[in-house]
Amino acid sequence: MAEHLQLRSGDVDFRIEIRDGVILVDGTAVETPRQAWSVADGDTRWVFLNGEVFEFEVQRQGRRKPAAHHASLSAPMPATVLRINVAPGDTVTRGATLLVLEAMKMELPVRAPGDGVVTAVSCREGDLVQPGTPLIEMDE
Amino acid sequence: MSLRRVLIANRGEIAIRIARACGEAGIETVAVYSDADAGAPHTLAADRAVRIGPAAPSESYLNIPALLDAARAAHADAIHPGYGFLSERAAFATACDEAGLVFIGPTADTIARMGSKIGARALMEAAGVPVVPGLTPEDQSDAGILAAVTRIGYPALVKASAGGGGKGMRALHAKDHAAEMIAAARREAQSAFGDGTLYVERLVERPRHVEIQIFGDAHGNIVHLFERECSVQRRHQKVIEESPSPAIVPSVRARMGDAAVAAARAVQYRNAGTVEFLLEGSGESARFYFLEMNTRLQVEHPVTEAVAGVDLVRAQLAVAAGEPLPWTEDALSQRGHAIECRVYAEDPANGFLPQAGPLLLYSEPTGPGIRVDAGVLEGGDVPVTYDPMLAKLVVWAETRTAAIDRGIAALRRYPVLGIRTNIPFLIRVLDHPRFRSGEVHTGFIDQHLEELIAQPAPSPAAAALAAAAVGPTFRSGATRSGVDDADSPPDAWTTLTGWGR
How many contacts, defined by CB atoms under 8 Å, are there between A and B? Predict the structure, then answer.
């Protein structure tokens, strides 16, 4: 009985087949390195290999993310909105600083995860925001 | 007088470090914790633990009355403040004195005098310690400012006397356009601070941040324990520290050491402290300028402990109890090379954004010359409320190159999974050709950011590991699909039952 799995890390996809204890990646048998660590957290898989960390997502059938998608950027922790650099309708490039939060006495820039268009800004400068509060919506 | 029971007014790795030193010295320890830290590793490291308030630092670790109440209730006779939090608040040292508790650190008066930047600068100038040349010209006209710039020499920095943050600041490299830039600086200063007064200072280009560890006792003895190079910083926070500094030759080290001792003597310094300098250039021609004095134990103190072969926290306890310093200057020397890497829960590729969440897998490297001071355990949760530093990896080896190699090898055996950390970033810094050759300055990370955050594409081997991954060991009944309790990470108490593997 073979087990099939689709994994994605960033924009790289891997087709996995596990047959008789052998792991095939895109059809080729791969031996797992010994000096390595991994852990599963639901559909998220974390891998530590030779000092690099990789995050994979298990892709479920019918739930695969479309190439173009909607991103909602939220506050990672309780923070104050220091500056907002964009307005709805702005075209931004990957890595652009959309807004700057302040928490733990540090300025935390929130950057665009990809090229896209800002569709909504749901905070104001000076706002105190809680983790998970949506700050900016964008279409990639 | 000897100390019997010390309350540790801190959390995380430094609270554990202090508890260990106290234990070795036969002193009992009292940990304190906020609601966010119930059951946290530092509370388990002490003989007893007392709750001091809600998660917000202002209501717990910064709450002086709550800490004094805890000390009284636990019958402590001394308080160690650690670093951060209340460690440099003169009011806390005073409150301890008034409550009859020994404050393990300098006197309130010393803390207050060094806490004022302007006051400290004047004090240092009077003590003959070099400071960055600068002045507020009496003649504030364009010609007056220009005359001051000429006197100080190029490159010079013209900045608003009334404030900071880069507003009203101009770097002048030559006389060309100097007048325009002075006028622009004045306009900015006027509009930002309502005060157009300008301050002229020598611009230290590509400076290094080098600090000297000093130590004084109640008997008037003061020694220095050499330097720590702390130039690798992001957002003005240190990331990697080492000793000796690759930029310092013996003659400069001797002069910096003398200056640091003079600085400490000027305030009759007692206990552990650090004098921070800006260092310009390297070799015999290097120049150094007083930056500020930190009146406490530093995060990076293990680097000094490794090369000087001393226990700074143990010495703090002895000196606080009135004993003389355990070392004389002549008996101290540097041996080998030590490097500290601060492991932060942060995402370097996303502006070093702090991360919070569960430590699904956490395993520290071990081996010769490797020390890890950590405040976390596998299965624990990194809260959003406090500093994102998880641990410090300190490596020691005979040479700088060997220490770098050992640091890289140790980081490659330091898996932390479940939240993003800067471990891959630290490896790239240590392995960077400019770091290996010792050519670092405070702008190093910004200058090389692109290469330092570049991540390799996942390999088929990594994908195979991901496919073979199972749920965290500490979660009983975790299955291969691991869909059980991802939203409710366990606290350290539940973790401990499955511990000891």
Answer: 160
Contact between chains at A104 and B387 (C-beta distance less than 8 A) = yes
Q: What is the pLDDT of residues B230-249, one digit of tens each?
A: 999 998 899 999 999 999 99
Q: Tokens for B255?
A: 């002069």
Query: What's the token pair of residue B117?
Result: 């930047």
Min Cα separation A89/chain B (Å): 23
What's the pLDDT tens digit per position in B7-36?
999 999 999 999 999 999 999 999 999 999
pLDDT value, residue B478: 42
> Between chains, do A51 and B423 touch, taking CB under 8 Å as contact?
yes
> What is the distance between the alpha carbons of residues A3 and A23, in angstroms, rounded to a whole number?
9
pLDDT one-digit tens code per residue, A45-95 = 999 999 999 999 999 876 544 444 667 787 777 788 888 999 999 999 887
Tokens 């650090």 sit on residue: B274
Q: Nearest residue of B to residue A17 by CA position?
A: B467
Mean pLDDT of A111-123: 86
Query: How far apart are alpha carbons A110 and A75 in whole angstroms?
Result: 9
Whole-angstrom CA distances from B18 to A106, B7, B478 are: 27, 10, 36
Mention every residue, 6+ apart, whose C-beta is less than 8 A from residue B269: B106, B110, B214, B216, B222, B263
DSSP B456: P
Are B430 and B337 in contact, with CB atoms under 8 Å apart?
A: no
Mean pLDDT of B51-77: 97
Active site residues of B: 296
pLDDT in tens, B171-203: 899 988 898 999 999 998 888 888 889 999 999
| Per-residue confidence (pLDDT) for residue B156, from 0 to 100 | 93
Report the alpha-carbon distance of residue B352 to residue B343 in Å, rounded.
12
How far is the CA of B164 from the CAs of B59, B168, B169, in angstroms? 30, 8, 8
Cα angle at B392 between B389 and B398, to 5 degrees?
Answer: 155
**Most B CBs within 10 Å: which of A12, A14, A39, as the mutation test of the B interface?**
A39
The pLDDT of residue A78 is: 75
pLDDT band at A114 (very low <50, low <70, confident <90, very high): confident
Write out chain B residues lying below 8 Å of A54, CB-based. Answer: 458, 462, 466
A27 Cβ contact list (under 8 Å, min separation 6): A15, A17
Q: Which residues of A touch B385 (CB under 8 A)?
A: 78
Structure-token pair, residue B388 = 């994102």
How confident is the model at residue B52, as a pLDDT?
A: 98
* 3-class DSSP state of B494: helix
What band does B166 get if pLDDT is binned at 50, 70 and 90?
low
Collapse the DSSP code of B161 into the 3-class scheme (helix H, G, I; strand E, B; otherwise coil) and give the result: coil
Please name the member of A26, A50, A103 whose beta carbon is closest to the beta carbon of B460: A26
Q: Which of B143, B161, B142 is nearest to B200 (CA)?
A: B161
- Residue where the block lists tokens 């173009």: A68
B465 CB neighbours in chain A (<8 A) are 32-33, 36, 38, 47, 49
ipTM of the complex in this document: 0.87
CB–CB contact A39 B472 (8 Å): yes
Closest partner residue to A38 (CB to CB) among B386, B411, B465 is B465
